[in-house]
Design goal:
The protein folds into 2 domains: about 10-65 and about 145-250, TIM Barrel; about 70-130, DNA polymerase, domain 1 (Orthogonal Bundle). The protein has helices at about 20-30, 65, 70-85, 95-100, 110-115, 125-130, 145-155, 175-185, 200-215, 240-250; strands spanning about 10, 35-45, 50-55, 160-165, 190-195, 215-220. The chain is an alpha/beta fold. The chain is about 45% helix and about 15% strand. It has a 6-stranded mixed beta sheet.
Length: about 250
């Protein structure tokens, strides 16, 4: 899909795992698309959702093992979500979810796909809006790293930590500025300004904030597959110069 969209590079940043990176790197070599290894780590944040992206110059050996505790929290969460759905009258089992997920780790998108297959919802957007998203009836909070630990973990493997989609923090402009300054003091190196759900005003705000603090400005589609959202690979992104900037940071 990236090749068909005439992209020169993409980053693979799955939630709390690098399990798909080897296959992505191989596919990138075959198609001529440069693949940046990455990860997206969920971190504790009271007023909203905090995700820290990590971009690496190569697949970090040992990182997957360090992420096992986070993955276990995700696995422990899934049966609780299933239980909530069952109590709401939905006929769904963990076996159904594992079958859809295959050999990878399971998460809410896989639960959503089972709900689609059984005709309970039309698509993943509906699954998250009505059942699985924050504040929805079957939402279950999961254990997360602190943002300090998430940033430290990424940096320990030569990664570049970037704040993902800042609008999900649910902070006003002044509190956002203070929080991003705090993140930078703990090693944050970038901020994601270009994102499908960011308004033009938010893109400008986050870009200016990033420049003022000396952060790299990144962006992407947060693409989860064609069944969720209304964007595709390449709809939102950044100039290839950003990749050059990343390399300068890695080599520096």
């Amino acid at each position: 899909m990236a090749k068909a969209a005439n992209l020169e590079a993409i980053a693979i940043t799955d939630h709390d795992t690098t399990a798909g990176t080897d296959r992505a790197l191989s596919a990138g070599r075959q198609t001529g698309v440069f693949v940046i290894p990455g990860v997206e780590i969920s971190a504790v944040f009271a007023s909203g959702t905090l995700h820290i992206l990590g971009y690496f110059p190569e697949l970090p050996l040992g990182l997957e093992q360090r992420l096992e505790k986070v993955q276990k929290a995700r696995k422990d969460r899934n049966p609780q979500i299933i239980k909530e759905l069952n109590e709401l009258g939905f006929d769904i089992t963990m076996e159904d979810v594992k079958y859809v997920a295959g050999h990878g780790q399971t998460g809410r998108p896989h639960i959503g796909k089972v709900l689609i297959q059984k005709g309970y919802v039309a698509n993943l957007d509906e699954a998250f809006d009505k059942l699985l998203g924050r504040g929805a009836p079957a939402y279950v909070e999961k254990k997360k790293l602190s943002f300090k630990d998430a940033i430290s973990l990424i940096k320990s493997y030569r990664g570049i930590p970037v704040l993902a989609h800042p609008f999900t923090l649910n902070l006003d402009n002044s509190r956002l500025t203070l929080f991003v300054k705090s993140l930078k003091n703990h090693g944050l190196a970038g901020i994601e300004a270009f994102y499908p759900e960011h308004t033009k005003g938010q893109v400008s705000l986050y870009s200016n904030l990033g420049r003022d603090l000396g952060l790299i400005i990144t962006g992407g589609t947060d693409f989860h597959g064609p069944s969720r959202g209304h964007t595709s690979i390449g709809d939102v992104g950044v100039d290839i110069k950003v990749v050059d900037h990343l390399f300068d940071m890695w080599s520096g």
